[in-house]
Automatic annotation (TrEMBL):
It comes from Pseudomonas tehranensis. Catalyzes the formation of L-homocysteine from O-succinyl-L-homoserine (OSHS) and hydrogen sulfide. Gene3D superfamilies: Aspartate Aminotransferase, domain 1, Type I PLP-dependent aspartate aminotransferase-like (Major domain). Pathway: Amino-acid biosynthesis; L-methionine biosynthesis via de novo pathway; L-homocysteine from O-succinyl-L-homoserine: step 1/1. The gene is metZ. PANTHER family: CYSTATHIONINE GAMMA-LYASE (PTHR11808:SF80), TRANS-SULFURATION ENZYME FAMILY MEMBER (PTHR11808). InterPro entries: Cys/Met-Metab_PyrdxlP-dep_enz, Cys_met_metab_PP, O-succ-hSer_sulfhydrylase, PyrdxlP-dep_Trfase, PyrdxlP-dep_Trfase_major, PyrdxlP-dep_Trfase_small. The modification N6-(pyridoxal phosphate)lysine is found at K219. This is O-succinylhomoserine sulfhydrylase. NCBIfam families: O_suc_HS_sulf (TIGR01325), PRK08133.1 (NF006003). The keyword Calcium does not apply. Its cofactor is pyridoxal 5'-phosphate. Homotetramer.
Amino acid sequence: MSQDWDAGRLDSDLEGVAFDTLAVRAGQHRTPEAEHGDPMFFTSSYVFRTAADAAARFAGEVPGNVYSRYTNPTVRAFEERIAALEGAEQAVATATGMAAIMAVVMSFCSAGDHVLVSRSVFGSTISLFEKYFKRFGVEVDYVPLADLSGWDAAIKPNTKLLFVESPSNPLAELVDIAALAEIAHAKGAMLVVDNCFCTPALQQPLKLGADVVVHSATKFIDGQGRCMGGVVAGRGEQMKEVVGFLRTAGPTLSPFNAWIFLKGLETLGLRMKAHCANAQLLAEWLEQQDGIEKVHYAGLKSHPQHDLAARQQRGFGAVVSFEVKGGKEGAWRFIDATRLISITANLGDSKTTITHPSTTSHGRLSPQEREAAGIRDSLIRVAVGLEDVADLQADLARGLAAL
Ligand SMILES: *Cc1c(COP(=O)(O)O)cnc(C)c1O
């Protein structure tokens, strides 16, 4: 946002401050009224002092707002805050997480280019590649997330980008992001990381060598299940392409949603710590229970990539998955016996949610595809919220008793 007034003394000095301070302060610019809250700019357009001023702003010679599909001060504040938190030169907000992923591919790929995607990505991400980008001549192949030599072997001369989610949903598999970035860069490809599950509070992929980060802000960035949004963050020269696409195609973020996300970010660090603490306790407890065959949580010593998770992430996240005895019937009885936890596929909410992946989020896969993805009928996913952990444990105990 451009400032014609002398607000220097009031603007926050953010040199060298810590993550939690950036989460509260970054992107906060003050208007002449110097309000303490984050102002919401509900306007589609902006007026210019003179015709010459309008011409200069349209030409980009003078910074400033022209039209809210291009820039809006509230949206810009959110973008600047996310950029600060991800350690990105620039971030740009989108209408949803899917719009962020679409914008990345539309910005960097042309017909004839090849994209490598990890097998375990979000279902709509696979649909976007399979049903739409393939139709426009983008080649797509899938690689098991953790298999570094598999990634290396799958890269072709026309591979433009590698797309991963780490940790994966719902099984909490990881990829070594720094190692994968090296593999991509050695062959001239970009690494894009969907950082939705960790948020920058737990993982900063750009600092590990990734080129671009995407988010569904709908999840933990909002944190309370209120609205939809997304964001793309990366280096200036790459973000120029993404900004150009979004301005032209239009899936940009509403200022109201940006304002909600600014409020969400203020508590992101605290919330992620609390999500992780609750999830760790429940995962450890579940692992001790008779009715449970296996718990998938990177915070457990039994997780095959526990050491990588401890190195790469500042916390193990909110999603705990587990396999119960009794197959699908057991899993459904478990889910139906809970009274407090919401039966919904959403995550990243202060409310804990429970879902049966093989008949919901992964229900469209064939049994063979589910088997290959490790999604058993006995698998339950819990996205742990912010309720008191003893109450959550008591609710899961109801599920166990029903097995
Ligand atoms: C939800 C989600 C998306 C899609 O985001 P929307 O905001 O629903 O469009 C993408 N990636 C991951 C990992 C998600 O969980």
